[in-house]
What we know:
The chain is an alpha/beta fold. It is built from seven helices and seven strands, in the order ααβαβββαβαβααβ. β4 (92-96), α4 (107-115) and β5 (123-128) form a beta-alpha-beta unit.
Amino acid sequence: MTNYYEPNEASATERRDALAEFDRWNLRALLSIWSLFGRAETYIDFGSGSGAMVRFARACGVDALGVDVIAEPPDRVHDLRRPLDLGRKFQLATCIEVAEHLSPESTDVFCNNIVSHMIEDGGWLVFTAALPAQPGDNHVNLIPPFEWRSKLDDHGLTYHRDATLRLALLWNVTTGSLHHLPSNLQVFVRGTP
Length: 193
């Protein structure tokens, strides 16, 4: 099993640079989310990587924050295996291809970090996680989608099948080389959509 990625300053810069090659596809993914749900006033990206999605959202007037072990200010540097309390909640949360990189022992903390930062009534989570046997670097927590649904349901989210299917259709034509995203996608809501 591969170990969890533990960056130092030099490797964090190197990792952000490596992730930048996916920025244009991630921006298209975010625009697809907005086309389906509308542009949220508040947005948080768990595992924000290079920070491209939150920077773009801020440039569009959204109150946006990224959280990642390699984040740069004004985003929050944080290990998502540890409890997080930002003291605020967001209308839209994304977590794209992050969960598989976090140890199974930290799953409950990770899920709680997400849910506790979503507004109680109508907060949306767009979530993807690598499927079992999906290749990739530092994949230490590959579990089937139904298990992620169960875990997030245990923390107060409801899987939204219709929104998942609609966004997956959009992502099929917008996410380019990130062709695994539509099949890994699950959309959840907290409270009433």
